[in-house]
């Protein structure tokens, strides 16, 4: 594979409605669109998914742009890439900065798949032609949560993720269960509890939740293992798992029964697949999480979630869950609760150039020397 150019575009788009978590409210999403172009003019796309501020991981759009521009792209200029796996291995000499790495790495996967006229799902070994779709409810009151659930149910979603925290948990979930006693719901706490809240967390066993996502802090691997022994609800880890080693530690310690895999959080598809394969071996269920992503990242998530171990509906919702108009064409859509996995080359979605152009704030071009 000979890379001829890389384009980075920082884009910014308002969310259709504010996204509330106890860590903050997101109303506007920035992201970095990565285009890797080979010497034949074929383009592969990826998305840097760091947020504007470091509320979810330590990276930001600015640090990602810096690491991509000044560290990772210079590495790519030095060493040829033959297989997409080479990218992740090349980036191992740089610590962390997983979202920056993933943006570039995933663009190389898309490029590789397109050069081989195969869908990304086929390249990865996907076995599913459609993905059961879940959606997140991140509202700041019971009434607006109930309204959102009603609307998403009509749209066909199969699993509902409710954001909780110590000041919005028992009564809140009780309110939802009163209207929806059988609904497949899970709760995401985004690290808002400590082991001092053990009784509060035990009480949530009353609601037959599919799982509780990341109740404790991101480095509380041992505390999560203690908590899992005390509660019946399966623990799913999100923030705690940023690498294959984290996944192995968590599983060996019994810190979780389920893992939420996000390629952006773990440095890209290579690492995501390693975690998937390990979990598959160990009978640990996984699902594909989202981070309020634009269409390119959504498309990558669809390909990843077509792997056999992704047995639980994830955060793969339609483009219109968050966006008035996405940057891909066609947009991701949900029909009868499922998203179709494209069988066309690469990620299988085109670029909505007009939308991409009107949301672009910063543009950078890197030209590779053609030896
Ligand atoms: O904790 O899973 C999370 C969004 C941004 C960052 C972290 C998380 C989330 C979500 C939304 O819960 C999932 C989605 O994009 O659908
Ligand atoms: Mg989460």
Question: Which terms would index this structure?
Answer:
single chain, 371 residues, alpha/beta, TIM Barrel, 13 helices, 23% strand, binds 2-succinylbenzoate, binds magnesium ion
How is this structure best summarized?
The chain has 371 residues and is α/β, with parallel strands linked by helices.
Describe what this molecule looks like in 3D:
- This protein is 36% helix and 23% strand.
- Helix 5 (142-154) links the parallel strand 5 and strand 6 (159-163).
- The chain is an alpha/beta fold and 371 residues long.
- It has a seven-stranded parallel beta sheet.
- The chain starts with a strand and ends with a strand.
- It has two domains: 3-117 and 352-367, 2-Layer Sandwich (Enolase-like, domain 1); 122-340, Alpha-Beta Barrel (TIM Barrel), CATH 3.20.20.120.
- 52% of the residues are buried.
- The protein contains 13 helices and 15 strands.
- 2-succinylbenzoate binds at residues 56, 136, 188, 190, 238, 289-292, 315, 317.
Question: Could you give the topology of this structure?
Answer:
Blueprint: E1 3-21, E2 24-38, E3 43-48, H1 61-78, H2 85-91, H3 98-115, H4 120-124, E4 130-132, E5 134-137, H5 142-154, E6 159-163, H6 170-179, E7 185-188, H7 198-203, E8 212-213, H8 221-230, E9 235-237, H9 244-253, E10 258-261, H10 263-266, H11 269-281, E11 285-288, H12 295-305, E12 328-329, E13 338-340, E14 350-351, H13 353-359, E15 360-367
Parallel strand pairs: 5-6, 6-7, 7-8, 8-9, 9-10, 10-11
Antiparallel strand pairs: 1-2, 1-15, 2-3, 4-13, 12-14
The site of 2-succinylbenzoate (OSB) has 11 residues, from loops.
